[in-house]
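The freezer alarm interrupted the setup, so I double-checked each line after restarting. Inputs confirmed:
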Amino acid sequence: MEHQSHTPTHAHDENAPHAEVVQHYTEAEIKHHVKIYMGVFMALLALTLATVTVSYFTFDFSTTVVVALAIASLKAALVAAYFMHLMSEKKLVYLIMLFTVVFFIGLMLLPLLTQSNGVEY
Amino acid sequence: MEIPYTVSARKDTGLYNGKLGIWLFLASEVMLFGALFSSYILIRVLHPGWTKEHLNVPLGLFNTAVLIASSVTIVLAWASLMLKKYNKFRMYLAITILCGATFMIVKSFEYREKFTHGHWPSFNNFYALYFTLTGLHALHVLCGMAVMTYLLFFGRKMWEKQPQRLANRIEVTGLFWHFVDLVWIFLFPILYLL
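Predicted 3D structure, all chains:
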């Protein structure tokens, strides 16, 4: 196993209080992050209000669905990109998510099978 | 036995182990909720007898705002730890837990209102989906609150010995909490608005 190649001293250093850590953020960077978080917060609240407001207008049903899902997807993207730090993640995380998205889309399309098979529902 | 890579990243993955673990877990969570969303589409689109039931939109809107706010406070808790401000971290974590509790209280009022009108999950397809989806989601909120409460009261020892390890735990907890928020972002429109 990979981690066994570490010498005991190294393993100890790894978890020591002032050892080198994963993130190398400076104080200024963290403060900049906080500003972005507040901006995203405002955007999410605005989009939530927008989706409720739009729901009171009467469009045809498919337009309503598309608008509601588009706003929800935009909100989800903001949460994932900024709060979940997906803007700057390691390759492996993107790879896991890519697999997940592919299978998720498959799941969402699964109901179509009931139609193409002519299953009476 | 010492758990490896709780602080620094493994060379091959580029991640500390907790982060890789939570992303794999979230991948499985996407599929769990995905199966239920897929059921929603199936029943909603292909079933002729779908009836749209009325839910309390202002309460749903309020809960959406509460969850979004709690997503912000958990990242602020993480940022406070990175700035070595432990008390501020505890404050933000406590606010996050309170937001979760607020969400659950509002949800329980909504549930009770439905039950008093005889709207149980067995009432029709809408309520079956509503209670399954929001119930599973509420369970996730409770689990997130349990983890955060533990870290709030038992985090100090780790903070003194391994501050970055605690910050990583908070980051991982945050990733889960954002996912719970993300699920609600979709549940709100499909159940309350459409």
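Quick read of the result. Chain B has one domain: 17-193.
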